[in-house]
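User: My collaborator sent over this chain with a note saying "see what the structure looks like." That's all I know about it. Can you take a look?
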Amino acid sequence: MRRVMGASLLAGMLLASGLVRSARAQQAVVAPQLVVIDTDIGDDIDDAFALALALRSPELKILGVTTTFGDTELRARLVDRYLAAVGRSDIPVGAGVQTETANPMTQAAYARRGQERTHRDGVAFLLDQIRAHPGEVTLIAIGPLFNVQEAIRRDAATFRKLKRVVLMGGSIDRGYDGKNGERRPADAEWNINRDPAGAQALLAAGVPVFMMPLDSTQVHLQEPERETIFAHGSPVTDQVTLLYHQWRAGTHSSTPTLFDPVAVTYAFRPEMCPAQPMRIEVDDKGLTRRTAGPANAEVCLRSDEAGFLRLLQERLTGKDPAGAGTRENGFQ
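Assistant: Without extra context I'll predict from the sequence alone. Here is the result:
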């Protein structure tokens, strides 16, 4: 009888130990990734959708947002207003390297209504976060790479302690689509073309780079899908809606191309954009060409566009667009 009781007790202890290990393993799996988002928000509208998706994705913990290209202080004010409106003023905002540009900032009016203040140095902020979390930080780079170039110049050794860079940029086989959707040959993509030296520095820095080029990121948000998002009426979707209408007034376009949200999605759902090792060379005009030699990047040439659009709508509205019910995830 005692042997039976002892065996039962041992079995119970083993079961409990297994449950503890299983719980710990589950915690390790679901622990959010630490990310810094580097963005040129305020020109095209896809950055606003990318930030919304990141805010609504519990797989990511946003350590901060840094702004790049042009008037980075004004872009930082835009992010301030956006984050305050969605109840996330706890997320630090840094202004990156200021550059000269004649490119119109379509959402400047929204930005100017944000709080006027001096922001922290975005490049210093990025380096500080890497030092605080060596080997753990993913940099989601969805703008021209001026801040990346400056971070490498200031402290290449610290920059190399990034976990990885997930980059929206480049054009391998597919350039910008024509007005009627026709496919065109490879082109100098905007984020790379604005600062080719930054892309060259990144690919030589020794950090894992995951590139989402034009080939996989030209996902169009058509009217039915965007109206579902705009009609939702949450703090996040309200800000995206405001910024969309300013962008549309400034560009006379109506259908956004969601380049940048694809990069955000890759950070936590890489299966939606399978990447392959490739050696990429960047010329001084910003063209990104694959070439022979050891791989210096993982590149996604084709994404699951339908799956991505379903995920975006579900995250921003809490509803499954396929009609399989609703799932509120508790995020504003």
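A starting point for your reply to your collaborator: Residues 318 and 330 are 9 Å apart (CA to CA).
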